[in-house]
Amino acid sequence: MVAPVPARCPLVSAARPEIAYVDALARAGRIDQARLVLEKMLTYANHLGLYSEEIDLTGRQLGNFPQAFTHLALIDAAITLDTALQQAREGGR
Questions:
Q1: What is the pTM of this model?
Q2: Measured between alpha carbons, how far is residue 76 from residues 1, 9, 10, 17, 84 in Å?
């Protein structure tokens, strides 16, 4: 089970810390968990694939929209996870 990332408010979570959590998990070698968290994070995008600054517990987007820093963090986390997956595949040969 994935531990929740502490939020600033009990009802709202900033998107970037959760994406940074994916990056940290991938760098720590916890690839399966990082992939699960990233896949869950992808479900919070709107119909255009965009994210706002914050996401409430129901998945509703709040705050500034669209949020460039959230998108940049998501891309960075995806690249980090992809690199970790490639290294795991190469190490398993």
A1: 0.73
A2: 24, 25, 27, 13, 12
